[in-house]
Amino acid sequence: MTRKAVRDLVRPVKEGFLTGSANPYRRPDYEVRELFVMLAELAQMDMMEWCRYAFSQEPLYGKFTDEQRRLWMRKSLACGQEYCRIICKKYDSEDPVVLAQKMGLQVSYPELPEHADRVLFAEYRMPNKITIYLDSVNKAEKLLAQPEIQQIMTSALDIRKLLLAHELFHYIEDQYKKEIFTRTETVRVWSVGPFHNDSTMIALSEIAAMAFAKAMTQISYAPYLMDVLLVYGYSPKEASGFYEEILSYK
Questions:
Q1: Torsion over CA of 85, 228, 159 and 165, rounded to 10 degrees?
Q2: CA-to-CA distance for 93 and 152, rounded, in angstroms?
Q3: Which of 73, 94, 97, 145 is deepest in the core (most CB within 10 A)?
Q4: pLDDT for the residue 128
Q5: Which of 64-68, 93-97, 210-214, 219-223 has the lowest mean pLDDT?
Q6: Over the range 219-242, which residues count as b (16 or more CB within 10 Å of their CB) and which as e?
Q7: Are 180 and 83 in contact (CB under 8 A)?
Q8: Confidence band, pLDDT 50/70/90 cuts, at residue 29
Q9: Residue 190: which H helix or E strand, with range?
Q10: What three-state secondary structure class fits 48?
Q11: Residue 172 in this model has a pLDDT that exceeds 50
Q12: Quick check: helix, strand or coil at residue 108?
């Protein structure tokens, strides 16, 4: 892949792994930082410290306050953790690969997406298809082979299983859509007299999916670190930009 192709393809991981954001991407122009330095600092952040960053790509961001965001962050984290317990108990497994099989999902592992105009790491497609793209995984695994990176991320990290667990939650949302918090909680977008429009929030789904994946894989840090790790394999400069963006939301 050429340098120009990387510039054209790399988008925030939020568009692939995290939120599927429709917001236009503004390419950061930051100095390249060493990966282990960035990961070491980000690994110290607890899940609530990621609150503003987690909501940063929410299309309805301006419709609510910081207090509401913190409340929804806590409830979304609890939702992901709760459904991890429910699903693991129901199917008698804590392995996302086994769970996907038992739940009848079709999981594939191609190298790259076809006809994509951006880098994708993983995606869920209704009704029961999950795809993990190995190009990004393979690049990240080479980085994990470095002792200083391995020390931070630990042997608990299995990138394929983490990505699978995240997408698995989105399938679970569809199965429990009438009762799960991420689908039943809404915000009022507009109202005129007796008429109004309420909408769900993408951010709640992504936060809960992160909590679900963290609980299932038993990693000690927030899965949001993947924003930096996975992108670094394509462009250290882009990854450094995400790092600076994350810190700006602390």
A1: 30
A2: 27
A3: 73
A4: 96
A5: 64-68
A6: bebbbbbbbbbbbbbbbbbbbbbb
A7: yes
A8: low
A9: strand 187-192
A10: helix
A11: yes
A12: strand
Start-end of H helices in the chain: 3-9, 35-42, 51-55, 66-91, 96-102, 134-144, 147-153, 159-175, 181-184, 202-217, 226-232, 236-248
Which tokens go with 164? 């699978």
Label residue 206 exposed, middle or buried (CB < 10 Å: 0-12, 13-18, 19+): buried
A 10 A CB-CB count for 105 gives 18
Q: Which amino acid is at 50?
A: W
Q: Is residue 23 within 8 Å of 237, Cβ to Cβ?
A: no
Report the b/e string of 51-88 with b at 16+ CB within 10 A: bbbbbbbbebeeebeeeebeebbebbbebbbbbbeebb
Which one-letter DSSP state was computed for residue 24? Answer: P
- Distance (Å, whole) CA 44 – CA 159: 19
Residue that has been written with the tokens 């949302």 in this structure: 173
User: Residue with structure tokens 């909680």?
Assistant: 185
* pLDDT at residue 185, rounded to an integer: 87
What is the identity of the amino acid at 113? P
Judge whether residue 41 has pLDDT over 80.
Answer: yes
Q: pTM for this one? A: 0.86
Identify residue 241 by its one-letter amino acid code: G
